[in-house]
């Protein structure tokens, strides 16, 4: 597959398959194309050559996406619960159906946000905000969850908390995880496979085969 912005190639000859149910980490230096690959997976960027195929034989692939941490304004008007439910509001009906309410409850419960669900999102801590983004991504019951540097700028215990939630969900239900990060210890702890991106070279394999020297000092 080739991905480019106009005539500026970013990814050339990437041939990569993601095993169903795996927890795969994507590593690589700044600017190597990790977010570009995520954008292509999300359907925001079309490959200039090759293609992305979702070969799930049981059910269609449903993507969930947890973005990089962005601070939300303290005055942000929605409660955590309203924020989690945001993508369920369609058209003019300002209320949710019973079944949709249940999905919101489930996502809030899975991310340990029950106690603070009525709090304004702007008043939540960094880790709680990121769990709210995770809950929002879970609403459609995705079977492929993409986290794009979602733990960057969280402190160590919050990083682990977020990924422990993701790892638990991955084991509970048919869920594959793609996790873009610069954090090698976190990758080693949670992932089972890796994709290491370098300019025009891509290495994949089981996480045990990833050596620290392959990744470079900036990741450690
Ligand atoms: N919309 C765009 N138009 C043109 N070039 C872009 C665009 N977005 C990204 N790029 C360029 O594509 C290259 C890859 O960027 P990308 O954001 O995918 O890298 P990355 O590996 O995610 O980096 P980082 O670790 O810093 O987030 C960079 O050279 C970047 O400047």
TrEMBL record:
Keyword Transport in the entry? The reply is yes
InterPro entries hit by this protein: AAA+_ATPase, ABC_transporter-like_ATP-bd, Metal_Ion_Import_ABC, P-loop_NTPase
Q: Which UniProt keywords apply?
A: ATP-binding, Nucleotide-binding, Transport
Please name the GO terms that the record assigns under molecular function. ATP binding
* Presence of keyword ATP-binding: yes
Q: Organism's domain of life?
A: Bacteria
Tell me the leader sequence span.
Answer: none
ABC transporter domain location, by residue? Answer: 1-220
Q: Which family does it belong to?
A: Belongs to the ABC transporter superfamily.
- Output this protein's name: Zinc iron ABC transporter, ATP-binding protein
Q: What species is given as this protein's source?
A: Paucilactobacillus hokkaidonensis
High-level lineage: Bacteria, Bacillati, Bacillota, Bacilli, Lactobacillales
């Amino acid at each position: 597959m080739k991905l480019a912005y106009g005539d500026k190639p970013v990814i050339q000859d990437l041939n990569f398959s993601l095993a169903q149910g795996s927890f795969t980490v994507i590593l690589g230096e700044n600017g190597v194309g990790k977010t570009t690959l995520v954008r292509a997976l999300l359907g925001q960027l079309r490959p200039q050559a090759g293609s992305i195929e979702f070969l799930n034989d049981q059910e269609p692939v449903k993507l969930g996406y947890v973005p990089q941490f962005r601070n939300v304004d303290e005055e942000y008007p929605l409660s955590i619960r309203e924020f989690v439910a945001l993508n369920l509001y369609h058209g003019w009906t300002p209320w949710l159906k019973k079944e949709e309410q249940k999905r919101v409850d489930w996502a809030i419960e899975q991310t340990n946000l029950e106690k603070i669900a009525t709090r304004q999102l702007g008043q939540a801590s960094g880790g709680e905000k990121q769990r709210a983004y995770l809950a929002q991504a879970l609403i459609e019951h995705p079977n492929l969850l993409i986290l794009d540097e979602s733990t960057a700028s969280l402190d160590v215990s919050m990083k682990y908390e977020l990924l422990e939630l993701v790892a638990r969900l991955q084991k509970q239900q048919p869920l594959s995880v793609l996790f873009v990060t610069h954090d090698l210890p976190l990758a080693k702890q949670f992932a089972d496979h890796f994709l290491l991106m370098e300019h025009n070279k891509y290495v994949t394999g089981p996480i045990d085969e990833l050596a620290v020297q392959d990744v470079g000092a900036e990741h450690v």
